[in-house]
Amino acid sequence: MKWIIASDLHGSAHYCRQLLEAWKREEAPRMLFLGDLLYHGPRNDLPEGYAPKEVIALLQERQADIFCVRGNCEAEVDQMVLPFPVLADYCLLESAGHLIYATHGHHFNEDHLPPLHPGDVLLHGHTHIPRRTLRDGVYVLNPGSVSIPKAGSWHGYMTLEDGVFTWKTLSGDVRDTLRL
User: Fold this and answer.
1) According to the lineage, what is the superkingdom (predicted)?
2) Topology of 3-89+144-179 in CATH?
């Protein structure tokens, strides 16, 4: 199954529309969102098109196809207004025989790995910087940010299909790939 993976939308309806267009273009049945859907938090400026209520409405149409982990900006009130679960600290997936531990990144990240085996994947957002590295035999991957990219990176997402991670801009330009 193909997944679209995104993180750190921070309430931008402008970039949510672009992400939904990318999702349609990718023809991925499911989305994994790595947290920070609705709010920008005190460390970030408001993203372009900041409209959390509009983001909620935009995502309702695909609510059965969205899996989300809790970011550091999610709160219980978000679960009251979103029609899909957003408060799980992590989720586990499997692809091409590799365990994927998906989380936001504010607890587990490159500097603090969860208990994983060599060849497993830690997938997280939080830093707003697309990244791939190998740490103690564990792949540490980050799709970057949909709405507030940092360190000169792009507005983007990644896909996962048949053990291949692909980093893309919101317009679909490929920036990197990794085959597990």
Assistant:
1) Bacteria
2) Purple Acid Phosphatase; chain A, domain 2 (3.60.21)
